[in-house]
Design a protein that fits this description.
heterodimer, A: alpha/beta, Rossmann fold, 8-stranded mixed β-sheet, 3-stranded antiparallel β-sheet, 11 helices, 12 strands, globular, B: alpha/beta, Pyruvate-ferredoxin Oxidoreductase, domain 3, 4 domains, 6-stranded mixed β-sheet
Chain lengths: 340, 622
């Protein structure tokens, strides 16, 4: 790829003239800010950047970006973005989605986008609630959650987006949260740089319908005890004094344990690039409930053929095999005869 | 040496019938190909079960292929076969009701054993019980003769037995005085990697041909002369291939890439197959996870500046409705092909019906008008595809193009157009600002409309200064920002409707087929019934009726000259393969009392059905 000069931009250049209409205090604001501040640093052009969204609070995101954008229909953004990305490999295509949009109505599109591995950056804002429809439980809501549609508590087990993505064969899977701009930006940058489909789950607070959903993990007081920072090549340790660590057991599962001289050597060293997703999956299943230590960062980052590249290769192979396109020849390809 | 009487005929209708595994479609296609090369006009009607291998020997498992060949211009595969080739008792029983007395029946006598006869539902052997006395029946031991012919050829007995369809083909080629050459070439090519199978088929083909020549039990021979054709290059084409090539041609003439998003569904999958093999034309095909993703991806491609195409059959259109509504709102070009099959729900997947008209016209929530057109014949699918792209691109709108199960699979000869005869389509992408901001700076407003077409700019990403957002929320007129203003919504609704209504100004004038010029009854059909209605009208004229025929390609908006034409006739007869969807539309639009004729049998109208209805309409005229 040739390096092109991209003029210096600022957050203002990437912000549209539309008034942002999320509820005051919504976690979406900090995600928007993180991205608008990051984009000028990515050496990409606004006119070559497209945000595609479905339906939900998060889906309003494209309206606030001074890029190309499509606000589409519920759950379908990954499919729509795939059509765009494979026909326009020159574009940076971002998908903005939520837990209802991506995992409920659009679950099928998400898993197939992930296994195809077209060049998409999927940002999944997970607030564990339906916000736009005013407070019903979502596929990521914890079991027993009392909402307007579950006055006696929800009966369903929550879906974990990271586990789902890994199961679908995703090549880049990460989690970040709306309380840490620099962590978000680091993860977004990696997701953008990944050639293929990247999925970033963003813990996002809905201060109106599900306030504090993640505070046991990411509030300033909880972080030391409950937020596990994944760093490639480093032992997975956390705690105010790094006193806890993640170790493997005989079943292949991972577990959290208090570290001492007797088990320090058993702490798992994080490797984003393992071909086998089993370790990353075990990391995603560490938490037994929503209030326990939770990994943040990049779970998996592997190179697999990108879908659009493979489409181009097949087109080139067809031209190689059959010569340049000749419409006149095509119309005679099933046998023809001449009448005088 | 047997002396055979050779009769010259103007047309012959021939039907091959057998088990799904007997290779009847292949046999029919080979005979079609030979007849086309010979220069006959022809039309075909394949008819097969939805199951890949339905239970052998049963009526449900019968696969048939009907073809009419003629020395003059024909439009259908014919009502009633003059010749039925039945490879087994079920093939006979499923089709014998179609025959008129005197028709010729050739059966594979080997297959009429007790078990197969019972399996087909016969109590006694129809070859012996006198039930076929009004027909001219020839029983040929095709299996035995084929196996015999393949002896010592290193062919497995099973493969030898499977070649019996080529025996039947050889016999029929002899019957119609056709050469074996094209079929032999095809066998050579097709079975290049399976030499023993090729040998078995060759031997079976020759055995059938020689059987006709030498057998005393087999006398008749027919000759159907070539039809007069305008000069040019010709090919045999199915509706599915013509559609596929039409879209490739539209891409070629517009300079736009073609993107197909599709989910496999009978009988639309052949378009996906055909386009998947044409990647050298810059065609991208995307087999999506479902019908919704298929149309969604096509919308994404359209936003990026490609011709976005999605193909499906009836049940798939249900699933696409939401996304089509989005395309109406986004005002992006999109083509939705619906190869209609019998519904509701899963219905009869391989059988023809045209019952999706109302769905295409109205099947979306809100006021969501879009252009709807329908292909008339297999070869017309080519130009209908180009026309659909022209309308979609010119007016920045989704367009529904209706085909059907009969058109998709049927074959007819087609004069290959010269490339410069094809229309040019201008995408006319936005390339710069089209407005000013309040403070006078150049700006791009995505919903500023072209004064004549009311089309909005198509501005694919990549152009600096044209960054804009579109979405399914209502947009402010011209600006394109989200707007919940009532007056604006009404205006945008009216603008979208006016834009689609304006498509009618780009149609060619309607041409009514009314050779006598004094008809009082007008037959109005739409889409794929063209062939059967034209044949029915021709039959009615032979019987002495003065009747006019008009076949509609444009269903929304309706042509502007249609109302005046309808008013000219005392009676309007609307035959449809549905319960009267066009009839209701015509009544509503023009306040005239059209008579509806319907058929819901998974098969096209016969000429007789149409001619009888015309006779009745003339008798009943006010």
């Amino acid at each position: 790829m040739t390096t092109q000069f991209v003029s210096v931009t600022t957050r203002k250049d990437w912000s549209s003239d539309q008034e942002v209409r999320w509820c005051p205090g919504c976690g979406d604001y900090s995600i928007l800010a993180a991205l608008q501040l990051l984009l000028p640093e990515l050496n990409i052009r606004r006119e070559e950047t497209v945000f595609v969204s479905g339906i939900g609070c998060a889906a309003r995101f494209p309206y606030y970006m001074n890029t190309y954008g499509m606000h589409t229909i519920h759950g379908r953004a990954p499919a729509i973005a795939t059509g765009l990305a494979v026909t326009r490999p020159d574009l940076n295509v971002f998908v903005v989605s939520g837990d209802g949009d991506a995992l409920s109505i659009g679950g099928n599109h998400l898993i197939h986008a992930l296994r195809r591995n077209a060049n998409l950056t999927i940002l999944l804002f997970n607030n564990r609630i339906y916000g736009l429809t005013k407070g019903q439980y979502s596929p990521t809501s914890e079991r027993g959650k009392t909402t307007k549609s579950t006055p006696q508590g929800s009966l369903e087990r929550p879906l974990d987006p990271i586990s789902l993505a890994l199961g679908a064969g995703a090549t880049f899977v990460a989690r970040t949260h709306d309380m840490d701009r620099s962590h978000m930006q680091a993860v977004f940058r990696r997701a953008h740089e990944h050639h293929g489909t990247s999925l970033v789950e963003i813990y996002q607070n809905c201060n109106v319908f599900n306030d504090g959903a993640f505070s046991d993990i990411n509030s300033k007081e909880s972080r030391a005890a409950n937020l596990i920072n994944l760093r490639h090549g480093e032992p997975i340790r956390f705690g105010a004094n790094d006193e806890f660590g993640v170790v493997g057991d005989d079943t292949g599962a991972l577990a959290i344990t208090t570290l001492g001289p007797e088990n320090e050597s058993r702490v798992v060293v994080h490797d984003e690039h393992l071909a086998n997703p089993a370790r990353a999956f075990a990391l995603a299943r560490l938490m037994v409930s929503d209030h326990e230590p939770t990994p943040m960062g990049v779970f998996r980052d592997v190179d697999e053929p990108e879908y659009g590249d493979q489409i181009s290769l097949q087109a080139a192979a067809s031209r190689e095999a059959r010569g340049e396109a000749d419409l006149s020849k095509l119309l005679r390809s099933r046998g023809s005869w001449h009448v005088d | 040496m047997v002396v055979h009487e050779q009769s010259a005929l103007e047309n012959v209708v021939l039907r091959f019938a057998g088990d799904s595994g007997d290779g009847m479609q292949l046999t029919g296609e080979r005979f079609t190909s030979t007849s086309a090369l010979f220069g006959n006009d022809l039309a075909t009607l394949p008819d097969f079960p939805a199951e890949i291998r339905a239970p052998a020997g049963t009526l449900g498992g019968v696969s048939s292929f009907q073809i009419q060949i003629a020395s003059y211009d024909i439009t259908t595969a014919g009502d009633s076969p003059h010749v039925l080739v039945a490879m087994n008792p079920a093939g006979l029983r499923a089709n014998v009701h179609l025959l008129l007395p005197g028709a010729m029946i050739i059966v594979n006598g080997d297959s009429f054993d007790e078990r197969s006869i019972a399996k087909a539902g016969y109590r006694t052997n129809p070859l012996e019980d006198g039930s076929l006395d009004s027909f001219n029946v020839t029983s040929v031991p095709m299996t035995t003769l084929t196996t015999e012919a393949c002896r010592d050829a290193g062919v497995k007995p099973r493969d030898a037995e499977r070649s019996k369809n080529f025996f039947a083909l050889g016999l029929i080629l002899w019957t119609f005085s056709r050469s074996l050459e094209a079929t032999l070439e095809w066998i050579e090519r097709h079975f290049a990697n399976r030499p023993t199978v090729a040998e078995a088929n060759r031997r079976a083909l020759h055995a059938g041909y020689h059987f006709g020549e030498t057998s005393e039990m087999y006398a008749p021979r027919f000759d159907v002369a070539p039809a007069p054709y305008p000069s040019g290059d010709y090919t045999n084409i199915t509706g599915s291939a013509a559609l596929s090539w039409g879209f490739i041609a539209a891409a070629h003439r517009s300079g736009l890439p073609l993107f197909l998003g599709s989910y496999p569904i009978t009988p639309a999958s052949d378009i996906l197959h055909e386009l998947s093999g044409r990647k050298e034309f810059g065609v991208i095909t995307f087999q999506a996870e479902d019908e919704i993703a298929a149309v969604g991806a096509a919308i994404g491609a359209a936003y990026g500046g490609s011709i976005g195409l999605t193909t499906t059959s009836s049940p798939g259109l249900d699933l696409k409705s939401e996304a089509i509504g989005l395309a109406v709102s986004l005002e992006l070009p999109l083509i939705i092909v619906d190869v209609q099959r019998a519904g509701p729900s899963t219905g009869m997947p391989t059988k023809v019906e045209q019952a999706d008209l109302s769905h295409a016209l109205y099947g979306r929530h809100g006021e969501a008008p879009l252009p709807v057109l329908a292909a008339l014949t297999p070869s017309d699918c080519f130009s209908a595809a180009i026309e659909a792209v022209r309308i979609a691109v010119t007016y920045r709108t989704p367009v529904v193009l209706l085909s059907d199960a009969a058109l998709a699979n049927a074959t007819e000869p087609w004069r290959i157009p010269e490339l410069d005869e094809l229309p040019v389509i201008d995408a006319h992408f936005a390339n710069g600002p089209n407005a000013r901001t309040d403070d006078g700076a150049p700006a791009f407003h995505p919903f500023v409309r072209d004064a004549s077409t009311l089309a909005r700019p198509w501005a694919p990403p990549g152009v600096a200064g044209l960054e804009h957002r579109v979405g399914g929320l209502e947009k402010a007129d011209e600006l394109g920002h989200v707007s919940y203003d009532g007056a604006n919504h009404e205006r945008m609704t009216e603008l979208r409707a006016a834009k689609v209504a304006g498509v009618a100004s780009s149609y060619p004038a309607l041409v009514v087929d009314d050779p006598q010029g004094d008809a009082t009854v007008l037959v109005v059909g739409w889409g794929g019934t063209y062939g059967s209605l034209a044949a029915g009208v021709a039959l009615a004229r032979q019987r002495g009726a003065h009747v006019a025929h008009l076949q509609l390609r444009y269903l929304n908006p309706l042509p502007r000259d249609l109302g005046a034409i309808l008013a000219t006739y005392e009676r309007v007869l609307v035959p449809e393969l549905n319960l009267g969807q066009l009839a209701r539309l015509l009544r509503a639009e023009y306040l005239i009392d059209v008579a509806s004729l319907h058929k819901m049998r998974g098969a096209p109208f016969t000429s007789t059905e149409i001619a009888d209805a015309i006779d009745a309409a003339i008798r009943e005229k006010p």
